[in-house]
């Protein structure tokens, strides 16, 4: 099988995952170019990562370039995050980075330079796959395809995965959870649409992390033993709280219990997120309600207008749960899923009533929960079958099918 020399620009972060993505595509016969995206970075680790990416490209004997997106990244990702915290929400910069930078600017520039595809080291599967109007996946062909891939060698899987999605193939593209459920990154990709996916490759979605590392070792890649990055990428070793304190003025405010009792002070409601446990409250009372505190306290609510933080005692406190939420910026990957009425809903045309049952995650790595998406003239609402804990405005509610297909998502408001 041949890739017919299709050109693939690989986003090489300097880590092992994107290094192996480039390796697999090269071995599958693609004309591969490595690209390091220079984005906003605080602690200088970007230079080290760029050097590692360059070393891998040299090892693979592929061209290598650096795309400078520092200005755009600061405007579209960093400022988006800061403004979100100022407004009292908990934004997700990883979702915005994928939308605006990796599958926005990077994709656009790569295509303008003659690329057929862009590829990344995301742990997610790309499949051609039909979905029924009921919203339930009709997946026997995809499942058989997946089983056949799992029996093949690393090289065979790479070629099959890469070749299955050439532009000559007809049909819609769908994303599925990765084989490695501990590394799955589908949650952060819900904003992608068909016009982007037809130019995307995700070579490592059918592998476990351990398999990816083993492939890197076999190939002698310089990043084979490099540790995975943690936290928000542009912060490096800088804590989120320290970063925000330099951009959001600190202002003392009250910390209240769910009963309205003041139990301490904080230095700015915007610095906290729903579900946060390590609160760092000054003048915090060790006795609440006339008894000794025996359970940890969590942020249950906050109001930046009154600069108030409300805490609830115990992880099972009802104040930490939500039965339903409103959504904004709802997007679906497969236009067949919502049904023909959905585009009018998403365009804000009033009077339409529509509902679909899905599985949903309201935070990364949360087990999927049963829920129903409903729309009417007032907007789009997500109702959970069982109340969900630590639901934070600004975070993503991401929809899945029972088979693990990523259907889309929205922003919690």
From TrEMBL:
Domain Rhodanese: 13-46
A family per Pfam: tRNA_Me_trans
One Gene Ontology biological process: tRNA wobble position uridine thiolation
Catalytic site positions: 97, 233
PROSITE patterns attached to this UniProt entry: RHODANESE_3
Renumbered residue ranges of the record's region Interaction with target base in tRNA: 92-94
Positions with a binding annotation for ATP: 11-18, 37, 121
Any GO molecular function: tRNA-uridine 2-sulfurtransferase activity
Function: Catalyzes the 2-thiolation of uridine at the wobble position (U34) of tRNA, leading to the formation of s(2)U34.
Protein name: tRNA-specific 2-thiouridylase MnmA
Annotated source species: Candidatus Jorgensenbacteria bacterium GWC1_48_12
């Amino acid at each position: 099988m041949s890739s017919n020399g299709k050109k693939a620009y690989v986003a090489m972060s300097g880590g092992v995952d994107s290094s192996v993505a480039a390796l697999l595509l090269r071995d599958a016969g693609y004309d591969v170019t490595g690209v390091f995206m220079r984005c906003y970075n605080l602690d200088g680790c970007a230079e080290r990562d760029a050097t590692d990416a360059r070393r891998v490209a040299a090892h693979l004997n592929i061209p290598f370039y650096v795309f400078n997106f520092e200005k755009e990244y600061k405007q579209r990702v960093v400022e988006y995050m800061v403004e979100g915290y100022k407004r009292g929400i908990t934004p997700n910069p990883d979702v915005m980075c994928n939308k605006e930078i990796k599958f926005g600017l990077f994709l656009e520039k790569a295509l303008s330079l003659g690329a057929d595809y862009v590829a990344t080291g995301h742990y997610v599967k790309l499949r051609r796959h039909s979905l029924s109007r009921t919203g339930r996946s009709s997946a026997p062909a995809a499942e058989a395809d997946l089983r056949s891939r799992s029996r093949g060698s690393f090289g065979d899987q790479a070629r099959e995965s890469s070749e299955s999605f050439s532009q000559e193939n007809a049909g819609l593209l769908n994303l599925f959870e990765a084989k490695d459920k501990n590394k799955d990154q589908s949650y952060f990709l819900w904003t992608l649409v068909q016009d982007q996916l037809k130019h995307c490759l995700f070579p490592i979605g059918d592998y476990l992390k351990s398999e990816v590392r083993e492939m890197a070792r076999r190939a002698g890649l310089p990043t084979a033993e490099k540790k995975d990055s943690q936290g928000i990428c542009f912060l490096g070793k800088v804590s989120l709280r320290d970063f925000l304190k330099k951009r959001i003025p600190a202002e003392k405010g009250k910390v209240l219990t769910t009963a309205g009792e003041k139990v301490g002070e904080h230095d700015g409601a915007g610095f906290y997120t729903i579900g946060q446990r390590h609160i760092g409250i000054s003048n915090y009372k060790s006795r609440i309600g006339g008894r000794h505190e025996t359970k940890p306290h969590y942020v249950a609510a906050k109001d930046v207008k009154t600069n108030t933080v409300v805490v609830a005692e115990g992880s099972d406190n009802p104040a930490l749960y939500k039965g339903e939420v409103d959504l904004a910026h709802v997007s679906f990957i497969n236009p067949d899923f919502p049904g023909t009425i959905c585009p009018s809903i998403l365009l804000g045309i009033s009077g339409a009533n529509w509902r679909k049952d899905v599985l949903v995650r309201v935070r990364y790595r949360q087990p999927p929960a049963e829920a129903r998406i409903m729309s009417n003239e007032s907007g789009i609402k997500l109702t959970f079958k069982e109340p969900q804990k630590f639901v934070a405005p600004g975070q993503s509610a991401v929809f899945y099918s029972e088979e693990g297909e990523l259907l889309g998502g929205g922003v919690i408001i």
